[in-house]
Amino acid sequence: MRMADNTKLLRSPASSGLARVLTIASAVQWVIALAVISLVIIMSAYGSQVLASEKPVISAARVAGDEDRTRIVFELNAQVTPVISALGTPYRLILDLPEVTFAFDKRAQNAEQGLVRDWRFGLFAVGKSRVVVDLVAPVRVDKTLFLPSIDDQPSRLVIDLVRASDEEFAKFVSDTRSKRTASREDAAPKTDLMTAQRANSKPVIVLDPGHGGIDYGAIGVGGTLEKAIVLEFSKLLRDKLLESGLYQIHLTRDDDTFIPLGERVQIGHDLAADLFISIHADSVVRGKKLARGATVYTLSDRASDDLAEELAASENMSDIIAGVELEEEPTEVTDILLDLARRETRSFSVYFAKTLIGEWQSAVRLIRNPHRSAGFRVLKAHDVPSVLVELGYLSNAHDEKLLISEEWRERMADAMTEAIHSFFRPRLAGRDGAVSQ
Questions:
Q1: What are the TM regions of this chain, as residue ranges (predicted)?
Q2: Three-state SS at 399
Q3: Tell me: the pLDDT tens digits for 195-211?
Q4: What are the structural domains of the chain?
Q5: What global pTM score does this model have?
Q6: HSE-up of residue 66 (Cα within 13 Å, Cβ side)
Q7: Which residue, 259, 213, 252, is CA-closest to 97?
């Protein structure tokens, strides 16, 4: 009787509804389970893509050998294939890589061994890293091999060099020139910025943070990198100038990328800039205790003093440091119109330099004779007023402390902004928002 009652109960309308609810709940659970599984699969695939997209890491490097045969070894976590080329005067080996992370301190590595005098590394262009090896003699690459990871040993990229004759090295340079050129052009195509026409008549100002990427510039007594401090300052100055609404502002670089000297000049020319300011914080060999304070340099065929000559020589080495083939300097200007344009440009450059010093005097410390001149390659645009500003000298401990001080940078940027307003005041007179006297 109870069995019959139970059966009747299960067959009742109420029990049928409960069964449907249980069935639906079970189906929902299956749907949720399938969704979770799908999500896990998708996240796993995404995670694999993220891992695959991470930059290879070079965790260590070393050099071993003698002046007949030398081996360069890089330890890394993924296979990379270098594009190897060479440059002469001085002898250099160029290793171009996809962008990698250099996760070791060069100063802890003993690079001066055998055929290697020194070496440096860093970001060379967008998506490209570069290692430049200074050589004590001409070489040829005997072999290059990649050794995969075994047990606890990391993967290794091995490059074996052997001594060669000058003739063999010259052929090496010639044969690899196209590889080196293609590497730069593929990595850093010109942007629309370089070919764009002016959108309005606002004065165009190009700020040029010195060095970058593989070219560190000076290193302060406390370890401050010139390429980093001048980029940070240039962005601060850009923002202050943009706040006025009076100018178009462009930076030759806005990240840690190397830009050759000639390309920096070309950027100013292509943008028809009204003012080009190259910003630096150098280190000097002579007179470390005396070289302190802000300085502004303009272009001249003969250096105004020993310090200017030394700094120009150092700055003009930037392309050599980064492994860029130097182009021949243009011959003397023979076109009279071009010569007149160059003279007028230099006059405007000198005028801005004097205006800048006038604003600096009440704001920051200046070096003795703060307006100097020398043959800086980055100032050689014949049609763009150009100056090179030394914010201070990283070889001086007092200057280094100021350069990393936010308060000092604000004061310096404000003074430079006022100098730029004064320089363009005649042109801006009568315009809405123009700077008053």
A1: 21-46
A2: helix
A3: 444 445 899 999 999 99
A4: 57-187 (2.60.40.3500), 192-428 (3.40.630.40)
A5: 0.79
A6: 1
A7: 213
